[in-house]
Amino acid sequence: MDEKTTHFNGWMNRPCYGIIKIMTKQILKKTYKYRLYPSKAQQEVLEDYLSICWWLYNHFLEEKRTLYKKNKTNISCFDQIKEIPELKKKKPELRKVYSQTLQDVVRRLDKAFQNFFRRVKENKNGGKKQKPGFPRFKGYWRYDSFVYPQSGFELKDDKLNLSKIGSLKIKLHRPIEGNIKTLTIRRTRTNKWFTCFSMEVKKELPEKKEIKKAIGIDVGLDSFLTTNQGKKVDNPRYLAKSEEKLVKIQRWHSRKKLKSKNREKSRLKVARIHEKVFNQRQDFLHKLSNELVSIFQFIAFEKLNIKGMLKNKYLARSISDASWNKFLHLLSYKAVEAGSWTVEVNSKNTTQVCSGCGNITPKTLATRKHKCSQCGLEIDRDINAARNILQLALATVGTTGINPVKSARGGAAKPPFNRVNACEVGRMLPTMKQEAIGFNRW
Ligand SMILES: [Zn+2]
Q1: CA 20 to centroid of ligand 1, rounded, Å
Q2: For a disulfide at 143, which of 138, 211, 263, 403, Cβ 3.0-4.6 Å?
Q3: What is the pLDDT of residues 94-121, one digit of tens each?
Q4: Tens digits of per-residue pLDDT, 187-209?
Q5: d(Cα 10, Cα 76) in Å, to the nearest integer?
């Protein structure tokens, strides 16, 4: 989108606003999540509904597994859907579930298989060396949602009417906009029920704001993020904080008899702690991304290689606790809606290059200080990285013609190129000056 508008920059002044207007109107996909408050009886209906879908999933998975093991063939999604009416005769409970919901179960399974076949193919071509991983049977708590794909639901005031289930109380804590595409009902492990509406919102995106403040951020384990101005936001480590409590309860839980009431009680306790940690983390991520988007019109960060990082088993736990992926996603979509820029840069060498002179200063993970032998710059390793990230991002955008960078470079923009790799940093550094843009609080 951004690219297209910049391409049109050249003839912005000509009377072709119509086209540009079409270009700036985007269909945004959004998900709205609301809590449901089913009665006791309704809760049982929902449980029942979910377990029928769960059964169907595993049943068709069994069928696919057998076929694949026997002669490496696959039965199509379409053919399995055609089997449903016959299956209903054998298992009348299936009639309790809305037929499109049943079909969606088959599609969900099909997706799992398509991913499996894709991984097999990638392996054959010698690309990624990950094990293909045959789709697995789902446990009771793992199968936690069902879908109304197109119809069978209606939202009226504070009631959600679902075909074959009835009228459920819903708390619409924020207004909903757009057309509902699909509706998902989800059960949490603490036995709460939620609904997610996937919406398509046709929205005119705001014009990109003038860039008054720009920021480069580096995410890491020591601090959740470090900015180019040296501000650090601590990593909250919510999971680590609840760890002690969790270990205690889990020990208690494992001593309980299977399927006993006490075991269910301890299961709930564990689930509640995980839920609390999840909520705390979400809250933190939302607040931080809101704050950044409200202050900065230009935010630069580096492309994360989480998969690679997760391979390090010592770091894995703290990395998934840090949830940068989610954070950067929130940051990006909030920025789009606010008319701000986010630029993701290639992470290669951002820690090694000196942000003062562009000289490459190799360091290991353990080296916390950046010391440049060429220009003598001595700063924190993460601050150095954050500065590089901002400079790289400004350079990328600068060459596609955005005002502040043009003035910072003091000349006309060069022809556009999308990716700047780190070896070009050195060449750009002497002319790029951050001081061209004002920084205050952050
Ligand atoms: Zn240097």
Answers
A1: 44
A2: 138
A3: 999 999 999 999 999 999 999 888 888 8
A4: 999 999 999 999 888 877 788 88
A5: 50
How many A from CA of 374 to the centre of ligand 1?
5
442 pLDDT above the threshold of 70: no
What is the reported pTM? 0.72
pLDDT at 419: 31
Q: From ligand 1's centre to the CA of 408, what distance in Å?
A: 20
Nearest to 97 by CA among 36, 55, 141, 41: 55
Separation of first and last alpha carbons in the chain: 29
Beta-bridged to residue 366, according to DSSP, are none
Q: Which two tokens stand for residue 156?
A: 């009226």
* pLDDT, tens only, 22-60: 345 677 788 889 999 999 999 999 999 999 999 999 999
Distance 363 CA to ligand 1 centre (A): 14
State phi, psi for 223 to the nearest 5 degrees: -120, 150
Q: Which residues are catalytic?
A: 218, 302, 382
Residue 417 has pLDDT above 60, yes or no: no
If 0-12 CB within 10 Å is exposed, 13-18 middle and 19+ buried, where does residue 136 land?
Answer: exposed
Coil, helix or strand for 127? coil
| Site of tokens 């209906």 | 45
Contact of 220 with 302, CB cutoff 8 Å: no
Q: Which residues pair with 145 in a beta bridge?
A: 186
How many Å lie between the centroid of ligand 1 and the Cα of residue 353? Answer: 8
Cα separation of 203 and 192, whole Å? 32
Averaged pLDDT, 345-364: 88
Q: Which residues pair with 310 in a beta bridge?
A: none
Give the number of other CB atoms < 10 A from CB of residue 81. Answer: 18
419 Cα to the center of ligand 1, angstroms: 23
- Tokens 């993970």 — which residue? 365
Least confident of 341-355, 360-374, 409-423: 409-423
3-state secondary structure of 351: coil
CA atoms within 13 A on the CB side of 58: 11
CA distance 359 to 376: 11
**Structure token pair of residue 65:** 């597994």
